[in-house]
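User: Structure please.
Assistant: Input sequence and predicted structure:
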Amino acid sequence: MMQEEKRLWNGKPYHSLDYEMKQRFGGKVYRLSLQTGCTCPNRDGRLGKRGCIFCSEGGSGDFAESSALPVGEQIRLAKARIAGKLPKAGAAGYIAYFQSFTNTYGPVSRLEPLFAAAAEHPEILALSIATRPDCLPEEMVDMLARLHQKKPVTIELGLQTIHEETAKFIRRGYGLPVFTDAVKRLKAAGLEVVVHVILGLPGETEDMMEETVSWLASFQTAYGGIDGIKLQLLQILKDTDLGRLYLSEEKTSFTDYGMEAYVDLVISLIELLPPEMTVHRLTGDAPKRLLIAPAWSGDKKRVLNLFARRFQERDTWQGRRFCSGS
């Protein structure tokens, strides 16, 4: 395998989302968590009623504004929520992030006005829409392509793993060919795609996780399909089936990563990624009130500081082990 030459992105050894946004928009960009009010086929009975095994009651939208409010009001409240985090210079703009549940699981006639309201807001620079690959019929992809003509649109897909046995265990509800087909159609429509991967799923070895990340890297080479990746630490949350399993006596399949071991794993995986792929996330970001384990993941600043130090100690970078011919 040919080793890529060392590269830095504004001093960082990986292609961060912050770097990508500054390149595109000329300054710091912040995400605003909004809701469409969609549910999920894993919850409404089409595929199941209990959701994915790790999913909280909020469906990953625990920080989002209420879907009962108009989009413009959600944006106002979300801006107020993060106002204390902004630098003195303020923000260059915002990303409208439709995060919770499956945001294309509904009729185009209802969803298009919601997304359009965000796209038409003067401070919104781009939209990020989280969904499932099995909830992207052609008419939905066509609508998203229309929306992309107004503001850049990124579609976030929760793959989590390429291994079918694990996918069945977590109740993902679709096979890998469904994901592949969705990405090809989204890219053909000109849309950007970000993929979620969960690290530390019960029963998965580090080799299996490396196979998932390597497959996504090669998928981009083959189809130009993956623009970004979120590497998500498996966090055990209260009131989830995964949390109940973890608190039971059936813990033998869980890998309780320490912070140092997890950081080293992620750095090794980032070495496999192509340099142009944006790394949107390195760890987890669960509400502390819901977090059962690992406890160290609640101290995000400490975790990110360790990432910076370990990258330097290992003298490595994104793409170091990426093979462009794969």
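The radius of gyration is 19 Å.
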